[in-house]
Amino acid sequence: GENVEQHPSTLSVQEGDSAVIKCTYSDSASNYFPWYKQELGKGPQLIIDIRSNVGEKKDQRIAVTLNKTAKHFSLHITETQPEDSAVYFCAATFGRAGSYQLTFGKGTKLSVIP
Amino acid sequence: DVKVTQSSRYLVKRTGEKVFLECVQDMDHENMFWYRQDPGLGLRLIYFSYDVKMKEKGDIPEGYSVSREKKERFSLILESASTNQTSMYLCASSFWDVSNQPQHFGDGTRLSIL
Question: Which residues of B touch A102 (CB under 8 A)?
Fold first, then answer.
C-alpha cells in the first residue's frame, strides 16, 4: 500500500518565524493531499488541501506546495502564533474507485514559543 | 459545518468485554472510517465503509468488527477487549470519491481496557 513519510517529528519555532513540514509519498497515482491540525483533546481538523493538478495553494498564513515528479509536498506556516501549536498530519490518497483511502504521516508536533 | 459525533469521549472497560463505539455524521456522506491513534504511530485505519451494510478491512482489522445499518451511523465493535486495544479511536466520514475529497473527523473516544 501507500507509504507517507513526514519530517520532522517535532519542531520548535519562535513566534513570528516560519515553520515548514515536509512529506513524501510512494504511490505515483496519489492525487489528493490534505493537511490536518490536531489540537489537544480534539480530532484532526482539515486546514488545507491540494490536488495533483495544482503546484501550490495558499490560504492566509498557510501554504502547501506539491512536487509530483519528486513525490513530495510541504506545509508552510508564516508568521507563526502560539495558537498554531498543535500536531500536524499530512496525508495522501491511494486505492481504486469506490475504495479510496487516506494514508497519514506520523505527525509533527509544532511548538510556537512566545 | 460537517458534524461527526462520537458517542463517548472516555470509556473504561475490562478485558474480555464486548465494546461498542458509536459514530454519527450529519452530512449524508457515503464513506465512513474508523482509525486508532497511538503515540509515534500516527493514524491507522481499522475498517471503512462506502455504503450501508458494506465494509472493507483497513490496515489493522484484527480483533475488531464494524456495523453500518444506516447511512449516518458506523459502529466499531471490539469482540473481546484486550489491553493492547487501549487507544484513541477516531471516526471520520467523507463523500464517496475520497480520491479528492477530505475526511472529516470526530473528537475521538479514549478507550482504556483494564
Answer: 45, 98, 103
Q: Quote the CA–CA distance of B94 and B71 in Å, as a whole number.
A: 12
pLDDT tens digit sequence for B39-68:
888 899 999 998 898 999 998 999 999 999
CB within 8 Å: A43 and B97: no
Interface probe, candidates B8, B23, B43, B109, chain A, greatest A C-beta count within 10 A: B43
Q: How far apart are CA A84 and CA A22, in angstroms?
A: 17
All 3 cell numbers of residue B70?
444506516
Arithmetic mean of pLDDT, A86-111:
87
> How does DSSP assign B9-49, residue by residue?
SEEEE-TT--EEEEEEESS--SEEEEEEEETTTEEEEEEEE
Q: How many Å apart are CA B27 and CA B6, to the nearest integer?
A: 15
Q: Would the pLDDT of B34 be above 90? A: yes
- Ordered DSSP codes for A10-35: EEEEETTS-EEEEEEES-TT--EEEE
In 3D space, the residue among A47, A24, A29, A53 whose CA is nearest the CA of residue A101 turns out to be A29
From A16's Cα to the closest Cα of chain B, the distance in A is 28
pLDDT score at B100: 74
Is residue A110 predicted with pLDDT exceeding 70? yes
Average confidence score pLDDT of chain B: 93
The CA distances from residue A93 to B10, B96, B97, in Å, are 30, 13, 11
Residue A65 to chain B, least CA–CA distance (Å)? 16
